[in-house]
Amino acid sequence: MGVAYISQNLGKSAYQIYVADPQRDNKGNIVIDPATSAPIAGTDYVNVGSGIDPWSTGITSELKYKHFNFSFLIDGKFGAKIFSGTNWYGYQYGLSKLTLPGGDLRYGTNQLYPQEYYALAGNNNPAIFIYDASFIKLRQIIFGYTFPVNMFNNKIQGITLSFVARNVFTIKKHVPGIDPESNYSNGPQGIEQAQVPYTRTFGLNLNVKF
């Protein structure tokens, strides 16, 4: 099952995320191996929440002035969790900002090099890569101009030329380095693995009425 997996559980929201849990003492504290300074691997998996957002919202508005029109759409989803495989791999291979401190140190009595230490720590305690998947995005902007019908001798009822931008930018998110809407190969929600974000697109739309 690896470090994380998705499960469907009776009585719970879909896409429950489970991650490997390190060994803990009788007080629930993570047990650290003095030989490596990393958490000791456990045998259990812990449920950290659902990959499905229970709440979503959107705000749209349109403004018109003479022959010009402008509209926008802001949307957001809230309450889901996500396991970021991208951040997990980055942590293991020294590509994460979290690995910057202590790059010149050796870890534990075994004097592990930083990459060995971070690989163990990431594998044995993958819950550090569980994030809040909530986000707010500026999803769409449309700016258009409607030409006066007398320009075409009233043979055409209307022509509107619009500039359209979609997936403009993310206003707010909690997960670093990735798009919070990402998932694994368009598969189950809640697990992300090296996915590219939604494409930002720009285009022109021509609407003609005869």
Radius of gyration: 25 Å
Count of domain modules:
1
Largest sheet: 5 strands, antiparallel
Give the topology string: H per helix, E per strand: EEEEEEHHEEEEE
Strand ordering within the main sheet: 4-5-8-9-11
Please work out how many helical segments DSSP would assign: 2
Protein topology:
Layout: E1 4-7, E2 16-21, E3 44-50, E4 55-65, E5 68-78, E6 81-84, H1 85-92, H2 114-124, E7 130-132, E8 135-147, E9 158-173, E10 191-192, E11 201-209
Parallel strand pairs: 6-10
Antiparallel strand pairs: 1-2, 2-3, 4-5, 5-8, 6-7, 8-9, 9-11
Helix pairs in contact: 1-2
Please describe what this structure looks like.
The chain has 210 residues and is mainly beta. It has one domain (4-209). Helices cover 9% and strands 41% of the residues. It has helices at residues 85-92, 114-124, and strands spanning 4-7, 16-21, 44-50, 55-65, 68-78, 81-84, 130-132, 135-147, 158-173, 191-192, 201-209. α1 runs antiparallel to α2 (114-124). The chain is elongated, with a radius of gyration of 25 Å.
Notable traits:
210 residues, mainly beta, three-stranded antiparallel beta sheet, 2 helices, 9% helix
Entry summary:
Helices cover 9% and strands 41% of the residues.
